[in-house]
Amino acid sequence: MHEHIGIALRGEKVLSLRAEAAEDPSGPLIRQLAKDMLIAMKTHGGVGIAAPQIRVSKRVLIIHSKPNERYPDAPEMEPVIMVNPEIISYSECFDSMWEGCLSVPGLRGLVPRQTGVSVRYHDLTGKEQEACLQGFPARIFQHEFDHLEGILFPLRVADCSDIYSENEYRRRIQGLHD
Ligand code: K1U
Ligand code: ZN
């Protein structure tokens, strides 16, 4: 049984700061941070997480795309840990999807984002990597990268009337009646 790792909630200052670069991507502090983030992401049922969400203001994020109730066609991927990620380029196309956030419980918002993104990052061995992400993984990346910039998804919602409570989202968007 792992110790419980709490999630920072909207309103906490750590979520509105620009996170600091990790000086040593393969060092013991960042490796331990990545382990804690993986535990927190899995415990709380996320498809991604960023270090500020466990109250560490460092530029580390994880994306873990998998098919789920909301995105049944999402690709199944092993978790990808990215240290000091940078965006190289965006695709020109946008689409909108309903997002949630572990730090904004109970809310869903319709967020327009670029459909693809090319990124550069360091892995936990310190090696520089590049990746081209499309679809759901690209969306998770942009959501997590925003956390490193101190931005939460409600700021990205284009129309305020597209912010719903979780219950209303389930009723209206998913057509579930509970
Ligand atoms: O950063 C986070 O808070 C994790 C967040 C990632 C995310 C979800 C949806 C779109 C973009 C980014 C979540 O995992 S929210 C948790 C959740 O309820 C969920 C799980 C699977 C799909 C969608 C939402
Ligand atoms: Zn989030």
Automatic annotation (TrEMBL):
Cofactor: Fe(2+)
Gene3D superfamilies on file: Peptide deformylase
Pfam families: Pep_deformylase (PF01327)
Record's keyword terms, sorted: Hydrolase, Iron, Metal-binding, Protein biosynthesis
Gene Ontology BP term (one): translation
GO MF annotation list: metal ion binding; peptide deformylase activity
Active-site residues, as the UniProt record annotates them: 144
Listed EC numbers: 3.5.1.88
Binding positions for Fe cation per the UniProt entry: 101, 143, 147
Membrane spanning stretches: none
Known catalytic reactions: N-terminal N-formyl-L-methionyl-[peptide] + H2O = N-terminal L-methionyl-[peptide] + formate
Record note on cofactor: Binds 1 Fe(2+) ion.
Domain of life, source organism: Bacteria
Matching InterPro entries: Peptide_deformylase (IPR023635), Peptide_deformylase_sf (IPR036821)
Similarity comment text for this entry: Belongs to the polypeptide deformylase family.
Function description: Removes the formyl group from the N-terminal Met of newly synthesized proteins. Requires at least a dipeptide for an efficient rate of reaction. N-terminal L-methionine is a prerequisite for activity but the enzyme has broad specificity at other positions.
Name assigned to this protein: Peptide deformylase
Gene name for this UniProt entry: def
